[in-house]
Amino acid sequence: MEYDKVLPIAERLVDLLQPGCNRIEIAGGLRRLKPDPHDIEIVAIPDLRPPHLIFGNPVYPTILDKLLASLARGDEDDLLIHLGLNGPKFKQFAISQDGGQHWIISLDLFLVTPPADWGVLYLIRTGPADFSHWIVTQKNCWGGLPNGYRVEDGRILSSSNEYIPCPEEIDFLKFCHLDWIEPSQRHPMWQRSVHQIAVHQVAKF
Fold first, then answer.
1. Number of H helices, E strands in the chain
2. In Å, how far are 79, 91, 105, 153, 199 from 100, measured between CA atoms?
3. 3-class DSSP state for residue 201?
4. Which of 60, 91, 111 delimits the end of a domain?
5. 78: which strand partners?
6. What pTM value is reported for the model?
7. Among residues 19, 28, 13, 153, which one has the least CA distance to residue 81?
8. How far is CA 194 from CA 13, 136, 140, 171, in A?
9. What is the mean pLDDT of each run of 10 residues along the chain (205 residues)?
10. Is the domain of 81 the same as that of 33?
């Protein structure tokens, strides 16, 4: 679908899910201003508190789960969802604007829950995929992540399991010795270090 048609749907979903989240933002191709995004990607920090119980109503673990159930029932006139995957950290569903006659696009909802950091997951899920792969790859393998560190469970850890907090994307970028990069300008920068080139040249002889 075209960007101008997908963006209003994504913005509507953000508005509807906002009450169940401490933070929620559009990511993926839409955030990168991709002209023809093939899906919607949203990153959110869910409010993990359960909703207020109302006698006779179903019990939901979180407010977000209650909101998603409402959308799956078609309580909103303009949107209906069909949940395909409903895990604790990742939910995927199809979206319809005509009561389920046509499922027009899918949504990937990534949830930032402990121990994950917003800055790490939001940057990775903004993409594109090759940039995300590059930045979580160590420099000694031509990537962007400092040697001796890894990304695990949505956070940065050292080889000794020292935790590097990244509450925002810029914290992740600065840790990788990078300045701010606009989402639409994010591209992998694979390159060998001088040491790697020297080792490669020696190995040829």
1. 7, 8
2. 9, 19, 12, 35, 59
3. helix
4. 111
5. none
6. 0.89
7. 13
8. 48, 20, 11, 27
9. 96 97 98 97 95 76 94 94 95 96 97 98 98 97 97 98 98 98 97 49 35
10. yes
